[in-house]
């Protein structure tokens, strides 16, 4: 077995047993309360609000409960283990020919997406005509907590040293550590005793890539290496879905940004930024395996349009900065492999915003994801004019 392809045995962990259907969850949310004048907009410690977020053990219990209560509609499997041995779970609902894959918490202090994906599973497994129709049209696979080690210590990077990497990849013994290796203080987190990596720079558009010492330390506009068990698990899940469906129609990555960006040209604080562009394709033609920027723009617009509905309180949705070239991200790598890819950047991280506006932000993410699922399910995504993408307001 290649060291770069440590494929886990995929065992379904929780099978449905009870015939109890999951009650439908709502995507609506009440209007936002006024932003307090003293709202924090910088680095803040001691307000992570961790008890309000789902930790690793709670996630396992919640997924098990969902699978059991859904009467077979939701299945859960272990797709890998983190560096510290924690399970990485994927949940699946629906049996349609189109497939949407979504992940959250690749950065462990960006937790809103995890709650959104749990709520989404309840919505899609509900005994409603709309949910039943969606299950017939689309297959939805979600990884609610992709980086559980980082999540447990509430920080961006995973819990893995360069020595751990070399132990798994002896050919890297003479290589310099990867550029995204944290060994100091970042965003208030001390990596000196427990170093780690930004896992969202460890992806490579060649899904069969084997780490080579000459590719280190690398840099931000170069591909990553699949040197971490967390990124390997997502890569292998993606490859498995490609084999099953022919393609992964949509890949969604749920993140957080700073809490107090404003809409360009105004002073309204941004609820969430979206993007469908992550690479400069002219720089990566050797990896072009069906790159479809228009599809990514159409899916981004599907989320944006859903959040602009008349009954939506989420008016301050903006376009994430476009001048980036990141083939080493999951979004960039999977876009180069032909998937429509969309970035969600909801406001605030746990170290700077805590659990403030928690419910509303969870709903904003879920609603945007549902807009994409609906557009993929009925094929309407391809009818959206991608030219409207540039009309989304810029993030100031």
From TrEMBL:
<keyword id="KW-0378">Hydrolase</keyword>
<dbReference type="GO" id="GO:0008270">
    <property type="term" value="F:zinc ion binding"/>
</dbReference>
<keyword id="KW-0732">Signal</keyword>
<dbReference type="InterPro" id="IPR000834">
    <property type="entry name" value="Peptidase_M14"/>
</dbReference>
<keyword id="KW-0862">Zinc</keyword>
<dbReference type="GO" id="GO:0004181">
    <property type="term" value="F:metallocarboxypeptidase activity"/>
</dbReference>
<feature type="signal peptide">
    <location>
        <begin position="1"/>
        <end position="34"/>
    </location>
</feature>
<dbReference type="GO" id="GO:0006508">
    <property type="term" value="P:proteolysis"/>
</dbReference>
<keyword id="KW-0482">Metalloprotease</keyword>
<comment type="similarity">
    <text>Belongs to the peptidase M14 family.</text>
</comment>
<dbReference type="GO" id="GO:0005615">
    <property type="term" value="C:extracellular space"/>
</dbReference>
<dbReference type="Pfam" id="PF00246">
    <property type="entry name" value="Peptidase_M14"/>
</dbReference>
<feature type="domain" description="Peptidase M14">
    <location>
        <begin position="52"/>
        <end position="396"/>
    </location>
</feature>
<feature type="region of interest" description="Disordered">
    <location>
        <begin position="30"/>
        <end position="53"/>
    </location>
</feature>
<protein>
    <submittedName>
        <fullName>Peptidase M14</fullName>
    </submittedName>
</protein>
<keyword id="KW-0645">Protease</keyword>
């Amino acid at each position: 077995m290649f060291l770069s392809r440590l494929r886990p045995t995929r065992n379904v962990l929780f099978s449905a047993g009870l015939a109890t259907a999951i009650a439908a969850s709502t995507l609506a949310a009440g209007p936002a309360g006024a932003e307090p004048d003293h709202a924090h907009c910088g680095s803040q410690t001691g307000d992570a609000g961790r008890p309000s977020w789902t930790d690793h053990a709670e996630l396992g219990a919640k997924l098990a409960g969902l699978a059991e209560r859904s009467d077979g509609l939701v299945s859960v499997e272990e797709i890998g283990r983190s560096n510290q041995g924690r399970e990485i779970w994927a949940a699946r609902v629906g049996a349609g020919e189109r497939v949407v894959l979504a992940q959250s918490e690749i950065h462990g202090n960006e937790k809103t997406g995890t709650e959104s994906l749990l709520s989404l599973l309840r919505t899609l497994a509900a005994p409603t005509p709309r949910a039943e129709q969606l299950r017939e049209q689309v297959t939805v696979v979600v990884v609610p907590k992709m980086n559980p080690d980082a999540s447990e210590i509430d920080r961006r990077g995973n819990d893995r040293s360069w020595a751990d990497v070399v132990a798994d990849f002896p050919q890297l013994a003479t290589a310099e550590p990867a550029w995204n290796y944290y060994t100091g203080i970042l965003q208030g987190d001390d990596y000196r005793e427990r170093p780690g990596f930004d896992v969202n720079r460890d992806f490579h558009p060649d899904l069969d890539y084997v780490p080579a010492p000459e590719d280190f330390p690398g840099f931000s506009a170069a591909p990553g290496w699949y040197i971490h068990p967390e990124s390997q698990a997502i890569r292998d899940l993606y490859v498995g879905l490609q084999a099953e469906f022919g393609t992964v129609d949509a890949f969604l990555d749920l993140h957080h940004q700073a809490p107090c960006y404003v809409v360009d040209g105004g002073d309204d604080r941004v609820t969430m930024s979206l993007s469908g562009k992550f690479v400069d394709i002219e720089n990566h033609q050797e990896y072009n395996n069906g790159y479809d920027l228009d599809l990514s723009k159409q899916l981004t617009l599907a989320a944006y349009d859903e959040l602009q509905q008349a009954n939506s309180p989420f008016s301050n949705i903006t376009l994430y900065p476009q001048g980036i070239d990141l083939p080493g991200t999951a979004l960039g790598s999977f876009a180069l492999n032909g998937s429509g890819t969309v970035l969600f950047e909801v406001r605030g991280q746990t170290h700077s915003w805590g659990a403030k506006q928690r419910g509303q932000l969870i709903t904003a993410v879920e609603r945007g994801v549902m807009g994409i699922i609906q557009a993929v399910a009925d094929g309407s995504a391809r009818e959206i004019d991608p030219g409207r993408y540039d009309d989304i307001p810029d993030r100031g």
